[in-house]
Amino acid sequence: MVDEYGFKGKKPVEEGKVYSLKIVDIGSQGDGIARVEGMVVFIPNTKVGQEVRVKIKKVSRKVAFAEVVP
Question: pTM value?
Answer without folding.
Answer: 0.86
